[in-house]
């Protein structure tokens, strides 16, 4: 297939459709329609009913329930929707859910993420043994003790999971867990905690990254979701611009192949602000204060097709598909982070963060299923400030070697049976 370059705005429809975080309204976002997320019904005019119906019929999605649920997933106990966001039930087409995973020591990322995303977040927290209490305290602190607590309460749903071999001593019921508030004058529970202090580290547990990814993803109530890592911050305004693009349904979006929408990822140095738009990002790249993600660690894992052209292209008002790529050739080991749906293959739960390659097997499945990778022109992610350099870690290298054997000998043959093969696809 030849390159498909597509600059947005060529075929604007006569009636501009704009999607706010909570839904679609005609005209501009500044019109004061706050959407169902803020408790008001915005679908009151005929025009917006049409727009709403259009997105709903295009997506043909089903609303999902928002009930707390205790279940098992392999070896893990999972408390889904354990602490729920105040947005309540969502219609599947009205917004996008950022789905992610962490342990409590990463929760300093939640506010910068929310300030930019401003839409639902589904967060699976690994809290084995004695990590459970500081995890709950961290959630309480974030919900009650900071100026941005309203964002946390409004948008973040917390799920908790732990191995059946490492159950906490006491697990409150979902409707009682917040009964005792956190004393806000005490220390921030997730601040300055070293890995050595974690129960997980003391018990030499690996971080089950893909269990967390899948829990958070499965719990999302929206059709579209951005399965990402909590340290990756999206550019503001992405949600409504993306849904606006979907509602326009221009020819590039009418291809028959399954599709996902990868976001190019960047790192910025410690002293730089996280860029809020593409123009700011371009300036940081020019001055060397920003680089493509993992450029100094594994450039082929996150190299994006047409990345030089993407960086050179000026920002436009709308969001559009810049290029349709495939996970083949130079990009055969690409591990994209993308806006996708519940229909996309899951992540393999046998892989750990420490063993690396945790998204490679899913990438293979996407390739074999002939997914189109619709790279968006003005959407991107920026890692929490600080540029990564390759550190020698013999222990992790050993785990990575074991993981590679597991993938090669066991997982890859399974994937070939389950998904088939396609020329040019590789794990």
Automatic annotation (TrEMBL):
It comes from the Eukaryota. Pfam families: Glyco_transf_49. This is N-acetyllactosaminide beta-1,3-N-acetylglucosaminyltransferase.
């Amino acid at each position: 297939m030849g390159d498909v370059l597509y600059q947005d705005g060529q075929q604007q429809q006569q009636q501009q459709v704009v999607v706010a975080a909570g839904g679609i309204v005609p005209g501009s976002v500044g019109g004061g329609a706050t959407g169902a997320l803020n408790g008001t019904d915005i679908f009151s005019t005929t025009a917006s009913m049409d727009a709403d119906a259009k997105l709903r019929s295009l997506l043909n999605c089903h609303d999902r329930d928002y009930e707390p649920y205790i279940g098992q997933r392999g070896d893990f106990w999972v408390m889904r929707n354990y602490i729920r966001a105040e947005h309540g039930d969502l219609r599947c087409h009205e917004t996008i859910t950022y789905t992610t995973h962490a342990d409590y020591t990463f929760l300093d990322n939640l506010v910068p993420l929310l300030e930019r995303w401003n839409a639902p977040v589904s967060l699976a927290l690994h809290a084995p043994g004695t990590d459970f209490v500081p995890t709950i305290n961290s959630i309480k602190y974030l919900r009650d003790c900071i100026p941005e607590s309203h964002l946390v309460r409004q948008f973040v749903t917390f799920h908790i999971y732990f191995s059946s071999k490492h159950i906490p001593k006491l697990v409150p019921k979902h409707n009682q867990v917040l009964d005792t508030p956190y004393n806000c004058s005490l220390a921030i529970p997730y601040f300055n905690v070293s890995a050595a202090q974690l129960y997980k580290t003391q018990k030499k547990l690996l971080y089950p990254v893909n269990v967390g990814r899948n829990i958070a993803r499965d719990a999302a109530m929206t059709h579209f979701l951005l399965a990402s890592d909590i340290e990756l911050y999206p550019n503001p305004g992405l949600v409504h611009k993306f849904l606006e693009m979907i509602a326009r349904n221009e020819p590039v979006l009418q291809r028959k192949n399954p599709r996902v929408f990868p976001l190019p990822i960047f790192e910025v140095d410690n002293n730089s602000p996280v860029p809020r738009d593409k123009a700011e990002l371009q300036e940081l790249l020019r001055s060397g204060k920003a680089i493509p993600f993992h450029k100094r660690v594994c450039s082929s894992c996150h190299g994006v097709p047409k990345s030089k052209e993407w960086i050179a292209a000026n920002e436009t008002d709308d969001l559009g598909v810049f290029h349709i790529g495939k996970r083949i050739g130079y990009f055969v080991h690409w591990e994209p982070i993308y806006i996708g749906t519940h229909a996309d293959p899951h992540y393999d739960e046998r892989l750990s963060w420490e063993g690396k390659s945790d998204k490679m097997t899913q990438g293979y499945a996407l390739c074999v299923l002939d997914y189109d990778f619709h790279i968006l022109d003005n959407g991107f992610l920026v890692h929490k400030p600080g540029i990564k350099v390759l550190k020698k870690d013999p222990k992790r290298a050993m785990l990575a070697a074991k993981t590679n054997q597991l993938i090669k000998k066991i997982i890859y043959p399974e994937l070939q049976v389950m998904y088939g093969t396609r020329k040019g696809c590789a794990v």
